[in-house]
Amino acid sequence: MQRRHAAFIIGTGFVLCAAMAQSTTIFRTRLAPVAIDAAMKATVAGSGSLTAVLAGSKLTVNGKFDGLRGPATVARIHQGSATGVRGSAILELTVSKATRGGISGSFDLTPEQVESLQKGRWYVQIYSEKAPDGNLWGWLLQ
């Protein structure tokens, strides 16, 4: 009986140590209007902020935005080939369908996705009715 308790305690200890060993990394971004030209000033506006927490391979995203000229339609995480280089959408976020609101999402990432995020290749972009090509965006950086 004592051996079972000892084995249980040792096993529990290993599980707790493994859980504590999972590194947690926080990424933040300020959401700002996408690069605009004079013709886009009437449709692109707003600001926001977002935090993404990576615990092991689990990414949890939460943020807020305000001041869009039209209701948000979608929000996505994109992956570029390097920081500052835009790329394709890879993950869909939940976004308030309004001119102000919240952004959220939770994802289990592959090792390749974790590496790409840690290298600064990911950014968030919010699209709106008035700016279907993109309204606000920001790079997820540590």
Layout of helices and strands:
Layout (H helix, E strand, L loop, with lengths): L1 H20 L2 E10 L13 E9 L2 E9 L5 E8 L8 E8 L5 E8 L2 H8 L3 E7 L7 E4 L3
Antiparallel strand pairs: 1-2, 1-8, 2-3, 3-6, 4-5, 4-7, 5-6, 7-8
Described by its quaternary structure, the protein is: single chain
Global morphology: globular
Low-confidence stretches: 11-20
Q: How many domains, in number, for the residues? A: 1
Q: How far apart lie the N and C ends?
A: 49 Å
Question: What structural class do the secondary elements suggest?
Answer: alpha+beta
Measured on Cα atoms, how large is the radius of gyration? 19 Å
CATH fold assignment: Immunoglobulin-like
Largest beta-sheet details: 8 strands, antiparallel, barrel
> Helix amount, in percent?
10-25%
Strand content: 35-45%
Let me know the number of strands: 8
Name the strands of the widest sheet in spatial order.
Answer: 1-2-3-6-5-4-7-8
What is the architecture at the second tier of CATH?
Sandwich
CATH class: Mainly Beta
The ordered string of helix (H) and strand (E) elements is HEEEEEEHEE
The chain-level mean pLDDT equals 88
Number of helices: 2
